[in-house]
Amino acid sequence: MKFQVKKDKVIRTMELPDEMATVLNAKKIAGKLFQIGVARQKLFVDGVEQSDQTKIQPNWRLVMEELPKKNALKEGEEEVYEFEEEEVYYESENEDTTYESYGSGSDDEISAAASSSSEDHQMPNIYDM
User: Fold this and answer.
1) Whether the Cβ atoms of residue 87 and residue 28 lie closer than 8 Å to each other
2) 3-state SS of the chain: helix, strand, coil percent to 5?
3) Assuming Cys at both sites, which of 19, 39, 64, 96 could form a disulfide with 7, CB separation 3.0 to 4.6 Å?
4) Rounded to 10 degrees, what is the CA torsion of 54, 56, 57, 58?
5) Taking a C-beta distance cutoff of 8 angstroms, is the pair 31, 38 a contact?
6) What are φ and ψ of residue 49, in 5° steps?
7) Residue 31, C-beta contacts closer than 8 angstroms, at least 6 positions apart
8) Paired strand residues for 45
9) Whole-number Å distance between alpha carbons of 48 and 62
10) What is the 3-state secondary structure (H, E, C) of 77-118?
């Protein structure tokens, strides 16, 4: 079945098998030709919008109307980006934890202190969050 789709002043003749000649399938084909997504199309026949399940009649001229993008800027508007700064900090369960620098103490003391750390005093693993 042949039919036409008109958008602005451009008219395209399309053809679909009779069993597939629905408005939704016409939108899919027209969308590829006019590069407009199906959700942003409305097809009219004689000024009446057609639903997606409507069967197309032979020699119909469907008039396509493109809906504006939801977030499209109106003429003269500018896009403004606002970013909020987020403070990130970690609270220690044990407030009086002291850390010795590696410069003080012998190597034996440092390795002993490192190996004796218990589960309660470990820093939170940032990869587990």
Assistant:
1) no
2) 25, 20, 55
3) 64
4) 180
5) yes
6) -70, 140
7) 37, 38, 41
8) 48
9) 10
10) CCCCCCCCCCCCCCCCCCCCCCCCCCCCCCHHHHHHHHHCCC
Measured distance CA(38)–CA(123) in Å, rounded:
52
**What one-character-per-residue DSSP string does 6-26 give?**
EETTEEEEEE--GGG-BHHHH
Going along the chain from its start, the domains and CATH numbers come out as 2-66 (3.10.20.90)
Q: What is the pLDDT of residue 67?
A: 85
* Owner of token pair 């900090």: 89
* Sole residue written with tokens 């939108």: 27
Nearest residue to 80 via CA among 89, 71, 67: 71
Instruction: Give dist(CA 99, CA 94) in Å, integer.
Output: 12
29 SS3 class:
helix
Query: Do the bridges between strand 10-15 and strand 2-7 make them parallel or antiparallel, or are there none, so unpaired?
Result: antiparallel
